């Protein structure tokens, strides 16, 4: 097969992987050309280096959620596997395999699930969001949806305490806007909103509640799963 045919084939394969991702996700992040699509999930390991060595010259640190294109791989003498990746159309280098997951590589969904379970607080939510955006057809998706929803519900209690402590009621009344609007504009909500989580505000109890979107998806898409049975209970318990 000629080099030209190989390039055309790589474009077609990469394009087919993009179809598995929500358009909004692709639009928000630049997708580099030239290889198999992968996503950074562990920024502790996401150093881009000039050589496939842990002491190789650092080019940059690539942030969690960034797309890269895998061009090849190499195992070094220490047994660590590195991927040759394109970060942009002009920037490439070597990155440790465990920093990335790819929708085209078998077992990466299970590996990411293990990382999610080993993560806490915001890291757990952010990595679960990457899983849900990347592995649309994984059989592990119901479990991740439940983890994502539970983490959102857990953080709602902390955000409620933080908002009550930092928002002064006298100052809010003097501002003239509805009280609930100050809470729903609370700046600590921002990074969770960017992960697809929406909180509702209970004005009577002055607390945030997770809106239950992941539970609704579980009931709608995976009605026979064990997670869907639990999701129904959570939705029924939500105040109306």
The helix-and-strand class reads alpha+beta
The span between the termini is: 62 Å
Helix content: 40-55%
Main sheet properties: 5 strands, antiparallel
Report the portion of residues in β strands: 15-25%
Q: Provide the number of structural domains.
A: 2
The ordered string of helix (H) and strand (E) elements is: HHEEEEEEEHHHHHHEEHH
Shape: globular
User: What Rg, in angstroms, do the CA atoms define?
Assistant: 21 Å
Identify the strand order in the major beta sheet: 6-5-4-1-7
Number of helices: 10
Q: Give the low-pLDDT segments.
A: 1-28
* Strand count: 9
Mean pLDDT figure: 89
SSE blueprint and pairings:
Layout lengths: L2 H16 L4 H6 L7 E5 L6 E3 L8 E4 L5 E9 L5 E6 L5 E5 L3 E2 L6 H10 L3 H14 L6 H26 L2 H7 L3 H6 L5 H4 L5 E4 L4 E4 L2 H9 L4 H12 L3
Antiparallel strand pairs: 1-4, 1-7, 2-3, 4-5, 5-6, 8-9
Helix pairs in contact: 3-4, 4-5, 5-9, 9-10
Question: How would you sum up this structure, described in words?
Answer:
This protein has 240 residues and is an alpha+beta fold. The protein folds into two domains: 3-101, SH3 Domains (SH3 type barrels); 124-237, no CATH class. Helix content is 46%, strand content 18%. The chain has ten helices and nine strands. It has helices at 3-18, 23-28, 108-117, 121-134, 141-166, 169-175, 179-184, 190-193, 213-221, 226-237, and strands at residues 36-40, 47-49, 58-61, 67-75, 81-86, 92-96, 100-101, 199-202, 207-210. A five-stranded antiparallel beta sheet has the order 6-5-4-1-7. Strand 2 and strand 3 form a beta hairpin. The longest helix has 26 residues, at 141-166.
